[in-house]
Amino acid sequence: MQGGRNEMTVDNRVEPAIRADARRNRALVLAAAQRALAERGTAVSLAEVARRAGVGAGTVHRHFPTKTDLLEAVMQQRVDRLAALAADHLADPDPGAAFFALCAHVITTTPGNKDLCDLVQSDDGWPRALLRGAGNRFHRALGALLTAAQRQGAVRPDVAVTDVLDIYTGCVAIQRHRRADDPLAPAVVLILDALRTRPSPVTEPTKVDRDETRRHDETSPPRCPVCAGAVHRSTTGRPARYCSPACRQKAHRRRHP
Fold first, then answer.
1. 29 neighbors 55 (Cβ within 8 angstroms)
2. What's this model's pTM, rounded to 2 decimal places?
3. What is the tens place of the pLDDT at every residue in 124-154?
């Protein structure tokens, strides 16, 4: 009887450890797959993913029997992360800045996943149940953040979530021609600026002398490197670099992932 109890105690301890090890391996595989897909596209093999994850091919197949299963899991993880980021932004005191910071994040981080996005959106019989759930969560969080930004008066009231998603598609196509660490493309900044209730005035370039250029620089507000919004000047202290605490925090996260 005593030996039986000891044996039962060992089993109860080993099983959670096995489950934890399986979860860790699954996370390693997903992280390796995300990197491999961003670098080599959807043609990457499961063997390559296993090598990058530091696990055996059998481990990959146990978690993801087919390549389709792996691709869908990678995409679901990315969409869920975007949904969580959008939900976190709802607590920001400046919803307008938070909305444009989210837009900038989506646009600058998606080009590396463009092939995967195209595959998921194709009509080839994908089992989209997981992706539909993740997509719905992201759309709800994005819609709530958009509504908060519109109530603040930062975003035009006639903009809908579907409009924002269409803009993402176009801006990602523009941004993918730039390096991953590049800021938003000028054309993307113009497009996002059109969502604002009071967009920045755009004028044709004209020839000016040095004095006129200096006066213009002194009066024009600088642009936030995260969301391209106007940065308000302060009469005291160091000049502000970001338009809001949300963008400053976002920049910090990019520097220290």
1. yes
2. 0.61
3. 444 466 677 788 888 999 999 999 999 999 9
- Domain spanning 66-204, CATH class: mainly alpha
Of the two residues 199 and 174, the one the predictor is more confident about is 174
Is pLDDT above 60 for 118?
no
Q: What residue segments make up the domains of the chain, in order of their start?
A: 1-65, 66-204
Q: Which amino acid is at 49?
A: V
Q: DSSP string of 91-150?
A: T-S-HHHHHHHHHHHHHHHSGGGHHHHHHHHSSS----HHHHHHHHHHHHHHHHHHHHHH
CB contact at 8 A, 120 and 126: yes
Measured distance CA(255)–CA(161) in Å, rounded: 29
Architecture of the CATH domain 1-65: Orthogonal Bundle (1.10)
